[in-house]
Structures are given as structure tokens and as C-alpha cells.
Amino acid sequence: MGLVADITDLGTRIALGERRALARGITLIESARADHRLQAARLLEGLPKDREALRIGLSGTPGVGKSTFIESFGMMLADRGLRIAVLAVDPSSARSGGSILGDKTRMDRLSRHKNAFIRPSPSQTHLGGVARRTREAVALCEAAGFDIVLIETVGVGQSETVVAQMADLFLLLLAPAGGDELQGVKRGIMEMADLILVNKADGDLKAAATRTCADYAGALRLLRKRPQDPDGFPKAMMVSAVETTGLETAWETMQTLVDWRRDAGHWVRRRIEQSQYWFAEDVRAGLLSQLDAPRARNEMLRLGAQVADGDLAPSIAADQMLRWLSAVKR
Amino acid sequence: MGLVADITDLGTRIALGERRALARGITLIESARADHRLQAARLLEGLPKDREALRIGLSGTPGVGKSTFIESFGMMLADRGLRIAVLAVDPSSARSGGSILGDKTRMDRLSRHKNAFIRPSPSQTHLGGVARRTREAVALCEAAGFDIVLIETVGVGQSETVVAQMADLFLLLLAPAGGDELQGVKRGIMEMADLILVNKADGDLKAAATRTCADYAGALRLLRKRPQDPDGFPKAMMVSAVETTGLETAWETMQTLVDWRRDAGHWVRRRIEQSQYWFAEDVRAGLLSQLDAPRARNEMLRLGAQVADGDLAPSIAADQMLRWLSAVKR
Hints:
By secondary structure, chain A is α/β, with parallel strands linked by helices. Chain A has helices spanning 7-15, 19-30, 34-45, 66-79, 93-96, 108-112, 127-143, 159-164, 187-192, 206-222, 247-263, 266-288, 294-308, 314-329, and strands at 54-59, 84-89, 116-118, 148-153, 169-174, 195-198, 235-238.
């Protein structure tokens, strides 16, 4: 990709809601090239600041029916005239060779809907890089006037935390469990969830879904109450993406929660906290990115081998590495 | 504290096992002063490399009887002629004003035993700083010929991970639980433990201890088997620090585990992995330490306020901060 000819014009066309301009803008912010980064910064600075989408984070392991859920849930919203953008955070996509949203045919109808915009995860190995680019893509989608930005993740490593830290609402999608075990959902993820949706509440799995939903409702009640929750939240509910049941109730529940948080001041406060979190994270990531340069990697390997052999204490090797890094910079 | 007059002499005296020299050496490595750091590096480089203590990490929340356990367990080992050093990792001590081992009277007999050496946690706010200094103190204790170095922590924040990453064995000390709940032990901590010791298995609490021990034994069986464990490990056992029961069996169990790991090559492999982990961690901590300088903190606050007001996007503020940092360096 070359440089954008007219960055102001691109920003104007994004603000007008042109999807090709939006797609081009996202490609620009996904680039790691220094000149692209400069253009991306100018693009972001010039965006209208008065638009605000509802940012929904969605996590669920492979097999819970995430694509089908997004298709059904997204179609319901799009048919009501709401404009919905779908983005993905998948730090594993570079390795696995295919991103979770790469196969757009899995969301065939939604991807062709005039009110929907679907963008696969960029191929990046670093979660830090993915996080930054996804936040910037969210900003572009908001500027393009989308009402809802849905950010999905498969929950590899820290990706759920990353998504929760950029969302107004965090949904956890689960499948009915076989036995009486809670599907090994990490406690930290449960604590981030605003709404747990047990999918596949249809056909043979309906009974299992009912039991799983009750189990999670019980588990949620054991968690400490968070200030940002009204009574009865976080909630566990059943949906069937295939039969499109429960989706309307889920959407109404989300709106109830969002309205309460807006009125109570939590919405604004959370956005400010998230901004400051990402500012500090970006600074830290920027400082650590010095270690990604090929020469720095080699030096780390060289010193690391001496540490492994016992020839160099870890702290002394680290001091040598830090001196090497500041010498390179000058 | 002034500079050490003769750093080679200090190293020699530490290697001879002189406790006053060891205490002086630890004070030196705990200092953040640049000239002290240089002397500390020279001291560490000159230490004998052929001595190896068994490093035992011990975690337990306040109230489980940690001091009493260390006193009883340490006395048993010291009376057998084993030399034991006790160090503490407590990132909260700077705030709370008192370190966990600060009150040596709680380990009155052990602190006066000729085979024991007890050192309170340094007063540092940063866990990174505490971690580095504790590892260096461990190295000094090993060079001084101690057979066992016990590193204790109260488990604030990430301190258990820090201790587990510098120990050959990781023990989790628990108190009998009241009801049928597993005392809210974080899953990650369970997964690090080699041995869970349920303390206070005496008097009125004995029945509760038995039940708690069985609960944890069951929970441990549900965890994925780790390559570094022989059959039957990790284990849960009962002890009474007050009645000094179960301590010999616990010590024999630790030795069985250690022998197995040595024979299977896990001991050496783990030490190498730990060294490489700390090398990389120290490099990262060194890069991030630029943010601790008072002027850098002020700049972060200034830009952070603009981010909070919505005047500056987080990523753009971060770029400005990174430019500020590299300008300051030149």
C-alpha cells in the first residue's frame, strides 16, 4: 500500500460513512510503516470527536457458535436500522494463518447488509500491536457513525482483558456444558463479564443449556458486587443463535444496563479510565518495543545463552543489555 | 551507609559464612545508590559459583501461622545441623510500615540459633526492585554456604509468582477453612504449589484441617499434571506448627520430590529457565524504570490529564511521551 494522497479527504469521507474510505483508513492504521503511522496519527487527530458508538466486547472459545451469534445478533440490529461494525482481536491469527473473521462466508448475510461492516483481525504477532490498532479501528468506526461496534476475541492469552478494556459492555458466550462442571472459564474472565450468554439453547441441548445457565447465574452471585452494576447484574441468559431466540431479550438487557450506567456516571468514568489505561500501556509497549529490533533480539539471545550456561548472573546480563540499548540509541 | 572499603574482602568473609559480612552484603545489594549498585555487581561477580542451596518458596496469607511455621520448621532443620536462611518478599512493607519478618521476636528461638539467619524484607515500593534484591540476597546466602534458603511472601499482587520463579520448591500454607469453601485461593497460586500444607491441625481445628486437606487434595487432582511432578504430586498435607507435628513428614516429602526432580533433570532445567526469565524481566524492568523519575512522572500526569479531558487520543499522547523520554536521554 502506498501513502494516502489526501489524508484530510480520507477523514472527511470516513466521517460521511463511506465504507471504502473506512476500509482504507483501517488498512492505513494497521500498517507498521513509519510514514503510514504518521499519516494514521493525522487521520485520527482530524476525526470528529462528537460521535459515540456502543462498544460491545464479545469473548468465547472456538465451538460456542460465535460467528453464528454475531450473524444473528448483528442481523437483528441491522434490520432495525442500527449500523453495526464488527472487529476482531486475535493475536493468534498470525500463527494459525487464518483470522477468526477471515472467513466472511461464515457471516454471509451480515457481511452483505447495508448497515453492517465486518473487518477481520489484522495479522500481527504482538497483542500490544493488535490492541493499539483495534482501538484505532474502533475510533474510525465511531467517526464513521456506527451505532454499535462489536469487538470479538477467541480469548487467547490476555486478549479478553484487552477487549474488556476497550468495551463499554463485555459479553461472554458459552456453550451448554456436558456434566456439572463449569467449563473451566477463568475466574478473571467471569469477573469481567457483564452478561453471560449460554448459546445453543435449542433442540437436544436445551436442557443442558438451562442447567449451564443456572450454574453460571449461581457462580455470578458469588462474585463480589461491582460498583458499575445495578441489582441483578452481571446476569446469565440463554440464547439460540441458530433459532434466533433470546436475542431480543439479551439486547434489551444490554440497553437497561447501559442506560443505568450512563445515568449513574459510570459510562463516562469508565471511558476516562480506559483512555488513561491505554495511554500508560502504549507508553510501556513503546519502551519495550526496542527489544523487537533484530539486532536487539540477537543481543538478548547472546547474553541469554551466557546466563543459561551460568557464566553471567541474570541481573548483570540485564545491565549489559540495557547499556547496549542506550549505546545503540545515541 | 558508606561504600564498602574492600569488596573482595567482604566476598571472602561471606564465603567463609560470617553472618555479619552476609548482613553487610545484603544491605549493600538492597541499596539503590548507583555507587552501591556497582559494588554490589562486583560482589556478586566474585562469589563462589559451586554452592547450591535448596530454595524453598513459602506463601500464605496473614493468619495462617506463617511465622510460627517458619520458627518450628526452621528449628527442626537447624537442630539437625542444616543451615537455614530466611528471606521475605513483601512489596507492601513500605506502605504498611512494617515488614512481615520485621518483628524478629515472632521467631525468637530461630533467630538466635547458630545455624539460622533471618533477614526482613527491604522497604521498597516496587515489586521489581524487591524481586531483584531478593534474588541477589539468595545468591549471597548460597555463597555463604546455607543449605536451605526459605523465601516467604504474604502473597500481595504478583509476589507469589516472583517467589515461585526463584524457588526450587513452592509451598502454600493454609489454615483450616470454616465451611466447605476453598478459602478463595487463586487458581494460579494452586497451580504453582508443589506442596499445600494445612496448618493448625491441632486441638479444636483438627477436624476442620482434615476436611480442608481432603478438599485441597481433591482440587489438586483436578489440575493438569505437570512434567516436573512424579506420581502423587502436588500433595496436600497437614501440619501443626504449634505442636510441631507433621513437619518431619513434610520435610521428607520435600526431599523425595527434590531427589526425583534432580534425577529426572528437572532441577537443572528449572534453574536455567528461571535465570533466563529473570534476565528478560530485569531488562524489561530497566527499560520501564525511566518512567519512575520525578520529571517523567510529572510529564505522564500532564499528558494523562489531557487524555482524560478528551483533548488527546491515548496513542498520540503515548507517542508524545516516548518522544519526550528520548529527548531527555540525549
